[in-house]
Design goal:
Blueprint lengths: L6 H11 E3 L17 E3 L7 H14 L3 H4 L1 H7 L6 E4 L7 H6 L8 H23 L7 H26 L22 H16 L16 H14 L3 H12 L23 E5 L15 H5 L11 E4 L1 H5 L7 H5 E3 L18 E3 L21 E5 H14 L3 H16 L14 H15 L6 H7 L3 H5 L16 H6 L11
Helix pairs in contact: 1-6, 2-6, 2-7, 4-6, 6-7, 7-8, 7-9, 8-9, 9-10, 10-14, 14-15, 14-16, 15-16
């Protein structure tokens, strides 16, 4: 009989055969990951230290190439009107197929992104299956399980908004019949996500001591739940969850440009960041390429120059809005950190939110490896709250959170970015949409924002986007083939 395996299966089997999770010390930051070592699953998950190592490995995988580099750029960014391929014209031309919506199911970035999410899910399922049997501090055990539920929910959210129906695996397979799962209807996937987040939020703490900074918090679970509810148009839930987060002590970082610099990681605006750092003498542990693949291309910057802002994004800011220069590195400029960008080169613009000052580059390490990837921040919560109020028929209540975001941007210069005062629902809705565009630009949200708002044809139609097809990306053909066609393709592909 033909052996049928999918990448989803392989991710699960790898966890059963060998759990790749060695850290230098459980007393150090969970960023301090030593070179990988394999431990047989039946010999692992015996001690509290094993549980800590498993959780650390789960977080470490979030900064893998499939999670924050090419796959994420293809699936979550370049399809939008704010970003395009970048780099040299002949390099990685497959990105253009995402930009103009001609991508086919055989493109490798689809499979890479898919695999990255199911690897995260596998790590979470390993923890949720095995950690309950470890004798350890019960409150810490409960927290680890809640963190795993958050990561599982986060990865399924990325999958379901990208592909629609996807295989839902909430336990480790116990026999071969459970390896090859069909696609689960997206409403059931969303229900599982919401269940995980509800349970996680009841356990996770609001804050951590310094050694655990970067782990998922109650605020992170509520913020993700608000975003999930927004995609489901459960506006009362969006309002409930965002109101809770708004009462937790988060605030906007005063300087928008500095919000994204490495010396301000995990600041008061940050709700969840994928942690990364340069571990001295350990390039194997310093693995993030989030900044490197988007960095200024050429000998000066050392980056690859992909996922660059578009001219239409640059033109979309109101006159004088400082977020334009804080979001976009322009060819020929000098950055606030003193880096002179060459006046000539492959690209006129680069993503400043992923930028790391050139003085921080260290030979032998990925350029910009120190940069965290901000996943959720407080400004997003304020704008979700504003949008929920608009959709619930109370546009006047949207003005206060909207004004907080605009006030931070104007920075005391009252000659720019005037407050929105209209209470007309359509006018305020348009203002919220525009504010999400410029406030969250180049943060991998714009593409799916436009689609969930029902504006795909209006905004992306000129690029080739077609209703009834491009709301989702194609299922990777490799997955369909390996499943023996148990997995089915999305319509139109």
């Amino acid at each position: 009989m033909k052996s049928i395996k999918t990448n989803t299966l392989r991710a699960a089997v790898l966890g059963l055969v060998a759990l790749t999770i060695s850290i230098q010390s459980c007393k150090k930051s969970f960023l301090d990951i030593a070179p990988a070592q394999n431990t047989a699953a039946d010999l692992f998950f015996k001690t509290p230290e094993d549980a800590t190592k498993a959780v650390s490995a789960m977080y470490a995988n979030l900064r893998s190439f499939n999670n924050i580099a090419f796959g994420a750029i293809a699936i979550e960014s370049v399809g939008a009107d704010e970003a395009e391929k970048g780099s040299s014209a002949s390099d990685a031309t497959f990105f253009n197929d995402y930009d103009n919506f001609t991508v086919t199911p055989t493109d490798g970035q689809l499979g890479g992104f898919w695999l990255g999410q199911y690897q995260n899910i596998n790590y979470a399922n390993q923890i949720l299956t095995n950690v309950p049997n470890i004798t350890m501090d019960e409150s810490l055990k409960a927290r680890y399980l809640a963190e795993a539920k958050f990561i599982r929910a986060y990865s399924y959210f990325r999958l379901v908004r990208a592909f629609g129906d996807v295989p839902l695996r909430l336990t480790l397979p116990t026999d071969k019949s459970e390896y090859n799962l069909p696609r689960t209807p997206k409403d059931q996937v969303y229900a599982a996500i919401e269940k995980d987040l509800t349970e996680a939020a009841t356990v996770l703490p609001q804050t951590y001591s310094s050694v655990d900074v970067g782990h998922a918090t109650k605020g992170a679970a509520l913020t993700l739940h608000a975003k999930v509810a927004m995609y489901l148009k459960k506006w009362n839930d969006v309002l409930t969850y965002t109101n809770q987060v708004m009462g937790m002590g988060y605030s906007l970082f005063p300087n928008y440009e500095q919000l994204f610099r490495t010396n301000n990681k995990n600041n008061q605006e940050s709700i969840f960041e994928i942690q990364s750092d340069l571990i001295p003498n350990n390039p194997d542990a310093s693995t993030s390429q989030y900044s490197q693949v988007q960095g200024v291309r050429g000998s000066t910057g050392g980056g690859w120059g992909f996922n660059v802002p578009t001219a239409s994004l640059a033109a979309s800011y109101e006159t004088g809005d400082p977020r334009r220069d804080a979001t976009i590195i322009f060819r020929g400029e000098t950055t606030p950190e003193g880096d002179k960008i060459p006046a000539t080169g492959d690209n006129p613009m680069y993503n400043q939110k992923s930028y790391v000052p050139f003085s921080m580059f260290v030979s032998g390490f990925n350029e910009g490896v120190q940069q965290n990837k901000i996943v959720f921040r407080y400004a997003d919560v304020l704008l979700m709250n504003a949008e929920a109020n608009v959709e619930l028929g109370n546009p006047a209540a949207a003005l206060a959170p909207l004004e907080l975001v605009r006030a931070r941007a104007r920075g005391g210069n009252n000659a720019i970015l005037p407050a929105i005062t209209s209470t007309d629902q359509a006018t305020v809705r348009a203002a919220v949409y525009q504010e999400r565009k410029v406030e969250l630009a180049m943060e991998f949200d714009r593409y799916f924002d436009v689609i969930r708002q029902g504006r795909g044809t209006e905004v992306f139609g000129p690029k080739g986007w077609k209703a009834g097809k491009n709301e989702v990306w194609p299922i990777p053909q490799t997955e369909i083939d390996l499943s023996g066609n148990i997995l089915t393709q999305n319509p139109g592909y």
